[in-house]
Amino acid sequence: MDFESNYDIAATAHFILTHNFTRVALQFPDDLLKDSTKVVTVLRKRLQSLRECDITGSGDETEIGLYVMADTAYGSCCVDEVGASHINADCVIHYGHTCFSPTTTLPAFFVFGKSSICAADCVERLSQYALTNSKPIMVLFGLEYAHSIQQIRKVLLESSTSCRSDFKSEFHFADVPSAFMFPSKDIKKLNGLQEAACDCGHKSSSDGASGTVYNIGGLTWKLPEGQSMEDYSLFWIGHDNSAFANIVLTFNACEIVRYDATKNQMVTDLSQQRRILKRRYYLVERAKDANIVGILVGTLGVAGYLHIINQMMELITGAGKKAYTLVMGKPNPAKLANFPECDVFVYVSCAQTALLDSKEYLAPVITPFEATIAFNRGSQWTGAYVMGFGDLINLPQVQVGNQEEARFSFLQGGYVKDFENQENVEEERETLALANATEKALQLRDNCNSLIKVDAKSGAEFFANRSYQGLNMPDENTSPEPFFIGRSGRAAGYEDEKNKH
């Protein structure tokens, strides 16, 4: 496939000129950055040629500035509106893998790329799977294979007609409604479909019949009324990446198989992906026992991120826990280790970067959906999983139950109280003496001289009782100390040592 077709140069130039953008930010992931200079050169030539061919004679000869962005502050799948704002960009052209999260302030045009795929082999694998499956098959795919879906559907139709195959299953294909996106004006409608901009639609997704519309990772499809995703088997075309993990966790009750287009083979063993759910449930149970919670801001561009941060803050404080908001770019174990007082972190980010493998972290990192289950008394995990926080914004306000009742902790193996009677606490503290501070707890002695373990309730309380609080200047002596001239020379022989010999 030629270079201009792979990077959609013609469609990109048409989008820029149609909307009269003059400052355009080109966002590249690390693996495509090597082609950025060539893309700028070819795109600038195409823009110039389209202007010369413009017969309307608008007379607008404003130069269009193209700016390359790399090393995004957060995930490369999201539109980097913060980086684009540094050059006052009018829009962002996003290249490579994308989560298709709604933007906040800037319009965006997405260039998915066009990965190669053998349509005949894909149809053969799909047909073989259909012969052993009685359920309808919903075909989902990575956006890098969106250009081949029409060909796959055509080959599938020809194969079923020529071979007269009697498939037990029906085939349904997801659509890509649009290659561009404008900022969402209403955060209550973050899941609304974008206006279709490419001819990838299927009539089941565009007719007026009532039904349920699903929209995930740039794909959209519609199920007839009375049907659910559990009635379908899923056939994924693409890599084992974050987009596929999003599908597996969201539709964990469905039978899912994956077609690896690079190796031309089917992958049916998804035990590793499904094991993630068990891990996430364990992290939810750990979060229930937390006292201090850190809210990690993992995006500054996805529409509604401020709303979900405030919603998480209200949920955490309503559960009687202390919350701190942290903005640090891409999180890693070294960064989060600077906040040892936090028992758990809530990571607010797009759906495809929300899952962090926190095995190397000192404290678990959970998603806003998991925080809703952990900090809402009486809530239970039914097996349904929500990756994007846009669905949580649309949910009604959660009412926190009676927190004074003791709850059973699976990790501690007994009943614990999240709320303590403040009057009893004050009376008890008058008779207690502070002994020693351990990592995240205070050890107090009562009248019987027995140790009582009380967890720190805030970062200030945790810091005040640490054995080491950093290098502090002594308060009793503020006068400057005299300075001395140190040694000079090398360690093998300082100058003062040479003089002695």
Protein architecture, described:
It is a single chain. Strands 2-1-3-4-7 form a 5-stranded mixed β-sheet. The chain has 4 domains: 3-111, Diphthamide synthesis DPH1/DPH2 domain 1 (Rossmann fold); 119-269, no CATH class; 276-401, 3-Layer(aba) Sandwich (Rossmann fold), CATH 3.40.50.11860; 420-464, no CATH class. Residues 186-207 and 420-454 have low confidence and may be disordered. The protein has helices at 3-6, 9-18, 36-52, 81-85, 119-131, 149-162, 203-206, 242-250, 271-288, 305-318, 333-336, 368-375, 390-393, 422-430, 459-464, 495-500, and strands spanning 23-27, 65-69, 91-95, 108-111, 137-141, 171-173, 180-181, 211-216, 219-224, 233-237, 256-260, 265-267, 292-297, 322-326, 344-348, 365-366, 407-409, 414-416, 433-437, 441-445, 451-455, 489-490, 493-494. Helix 6 (149-162) links the parallel strand 5 and strand 6. With 501 residues, the chain is α/β, with parallel strands linked by helices. The protein has 16 helices and 23 strands. It is globular and about 95 Å long. Its cofactor is [4Fe-4S] cluster. This is 2-(3-amino-3-carboxypropyl)histidine synthase subunit 2. GO terms for molecular function: 2-(3-amino-3-carboxypropyl)histidine synthase activity; iron-sulfur cluster binding; metal ion binding. Pathway: Protein modification; peptidyl-diphthamide biosynthesis.
